[in-house]
Design goal:
With 195 residues, this protein is an all-alpha fold. It contains eleven helices and no strands.
């Protein structure tokens, strides 16, 4: 799961959304330095990642890429593919249109900018200016994001070539996402109820 899915799976809880969004920039017990709601979001993110990484459907998706040149980036690529399918099929999952949902989240980040780790504060302007979350929705947009990710890895990830794999196996990846997303929604609802 990438940014959009993590935000969505946080429900309508602003602090949990923030925590879930920033979690990759918060290591170990450093999460204890944040407000309780943000701590819950960070812990939810970690639970989502553990659930995802070990899930047989997610592994089936990454297996389609393992004979390629992506190495350990296979999981990151599938995370982005899954965000594409969530954005592309957004109306099936949320009553609010994607544009408004994304703008509300960007506004939330701006309002809470001082609570964000430095790494996220540095990333935030690019994310908002280039509208990453909305770009996930179409094939051209996700291709652009994958090319940008490839540049960030100095070409080592070969992510710029992943759109060809997405196109070749599009129905298979979409079917995996649809099945998996129902399971992770159930999982995260239980996690949120326990918080």
């Amino acid at each position: 799961m990438n940014f959009l899915a993590h935000i969505y799976l946080s429900g309508d809880h602003p602090e949990i959304q923030i925590g879930n969004f920033i979690a990759d920039a918060v290591k170990g017990k450093a999460y204890l330095n944040f407000a309780p709601g943000i701590q819950q979001g960070i812990l939810l993110h970690r639970a989502i990642d553990s659930f995802t990484d070990t899930h047989p459907i997610f592994r089936r998706s990454t297996a389609r890429l393992h004979n390629k040149q992506y190495g350990h980036y296979c999981g990151v690529i599938v995370d982005l593919f899954y965000d594409h399918f969530l954005a592309h099929n957004w109306a099936l999952y949320h009553d609010q249109n994607l544009e408004d949902y994304v703008q509300n989240f960007y506004d939330l980040l701006e309002t809470n900018s001082s609570k964000l780790p430095q790494r996220i504060q540095s990333l935030k302007p690019y994310m908002i200016e280039q509208n990453w979350l909305l770009k996930y929705a179409d094939f051209e947009g996700i291709s652009t994001i994958l090319a940008q990710m490839n540049r960030r890895t100095k070409g080592q990830s070969h992510m710029d070539q992943a759109p060809a794999d997405l196109k070749e196996h599009y129905p298979d990846f979409e079917n995996d996402f649809t099945q998996f997303f129902e399971e992770i929604r159930t999982f995260t609802r239980a996690q949120l109820n326990a918080l």
